[in-house]
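Hi all, long-time lurker, first post. I run a small reading group and we've been trying to get comfortable going from sequence to structure in the token notation. Rather than ask abstract questions, I figured I'd post a concrete chain and ask someone more experienced to write out its structure so we can walk through it together at our next meeting. Sequence below, copied exactly:
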Amino acid sequence: MRTFSVKPVGTVHADEGSFWIEIAGPFRPALKGLEGFSHIQVLWWGDRTDTEERRSETVCTKPYTRGPETIGIFATRSPVRPNPIALSAAPVLGVDPAAGIVRVAYIDADDGTPVLDIKPYLPCADRVRDVEVPAWSSHWPEWYEENEGFDWAAEFNFEE
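-- Answer (accepted) --
Happy to help. Here is the structure in token form:
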């Protein structure tokens, strides 16, 4: 089987409700033109779950309170997976290409998380009109903006 090597392009920072992505020096020119996009897709590495044991997990036991007893990793958004790559849509508050900073309203990655790539959110490529989800998740918010106030903690069975 082929293997691949990835190099982080930046780091997530989170501090008292403020979130930003710091892009490493050599990659800062790649921020040119990102201004004007309201949202970005951020690919990041789940480094806190990156162990051989966790990479071999293909099924998890009841990760969702209303979900099935077992579910395949590919049917979850868990960072525990064969390659701990995560994807987050993030609202852009500002871009400073010279400083290598992308300020975002929120991102579900921890402070210090390695960023693998950033792509602009494009409705023609990233939005789908007729989406279907399993019954156990059909009560979840339909839109990103509706997440505020939704009790996400009640939806997951987090490991201690």
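A couple of things your group might point at:
Residues 52-55 form the longest helix (4 residues).
The mean pLDDT is 94.
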